[in-house]
Amino acid sequence: MEKLIITVAPTGNVPTREQTPHVPLTPKEIAQDAFDCWNAGAAAVHFHARDEEGKPTHRKEVFAEILDEFHSKNCPMITQISTGGRAGSGLQRGEALDLCPEMGSLTTGSTNFPNRVYDNAPDLVEALAKKMFENNIKPELEVFDAAMINNGVVLAQKGLLKGPLYFNFVLNVKGALPATPKNLFFLMESLPPGALWNVSIIGEPHVRLSTMAILLGGNVRVGIEDNIYYSRGVLGTNAQQVERIVKIARMLGREIATPDEAREILGLKPKA
Ligand code: MG
Description:
The chain is α/β, with parallel strands linked by helices. The protein contains 8 helices and 14 strands. An 8-stranded parallel β-barrel has the order 1-2-5-6-9-10-11-12, surrounded by 8 helices. Strands 3-4 form a two-stranded antiparallel sheet. Strands 7-8 form a two-stranded antiparallel ribbon. Helix 1 (27-40) crosses helix 2 and helix 1 (27-40) runs parallel beside helix 7. The protein starts with 5 loop residues before the first strand and ends in a 6-residue tail after the last helix.
C-alpha cells in the first residue's frame, strides 16, 4: 500500500477565535501552524485566508503573504490553495491561483451548506479547472456528493485534468453526504481506475472514518477547518490532530509519506 498522505486544513473559512483559541488566522500564525503540522507528520497544507477582521477572503495579496511567511520557514510541505465558495463568488474565488501553489481545491458540483447553497455551476468549475491546468496546479477534486466524482471524470475527458486524479471525499457537511462506512465504500467504488483519494470528515465520526480510509488505502485530511474538537468537548490544535493520525497509521502498519514522497504519489514535480 502507498504511504499515507496527511493534509492539514488549519484555518478554513468558518472557525473563529471565539470558538477555539487554536485556529490560526493571520499569515504569520497560519505559516507557523503549518510548520508545526509538518513536524507532526503532515505532507500538505490546505490554505484559506482571512482579512484583518478574521473574515474569509479570496484576496490574492493575503494568500501571497501566507505563502511568503510559509516559504520563509523553508517548510517542504505541498501548498494547496482553497477556491472554496465562502470567501467570494465566481472566478474571483480562483484569484490566488495566480500565485501558482502546487495544488488547488476544486469542487466539481453544487450542494447545500448548513445555511446556504454552495454554488458551483458547470461553467465556473470548468473555468477554475482551466486556470489550474494552465498554471500547472494540481486540483484536489472536492466531492461533497456522489455526482461530483463523475463531474471530475468529465473534466478529465475534456483534457482539463492530468492524472492521477485526486479526489477528496468531504463527508458530513450538513446538507451534503453523511459520513458512513457505506457511503465511503460507495464513493471508493465509484472512482475511475487509477484515481487516488482522501477523506475530510466533519464532526463526530472523523476519527473512525479517517481510520477506515487509512486501512483502505486512502489518505486523510485533518485540521480545525474540519473539526475544532479533538474529542467530545475538548478543543485541539492542528498539530495534535495530525499527531493522532500518524499514531493510528503507524499502529495499523501504514507508513507516512514525506512531502516529496507525497509529490511522487500525486504526480507533482519534486520541490526545487
Ligand atoms: Mg477548504
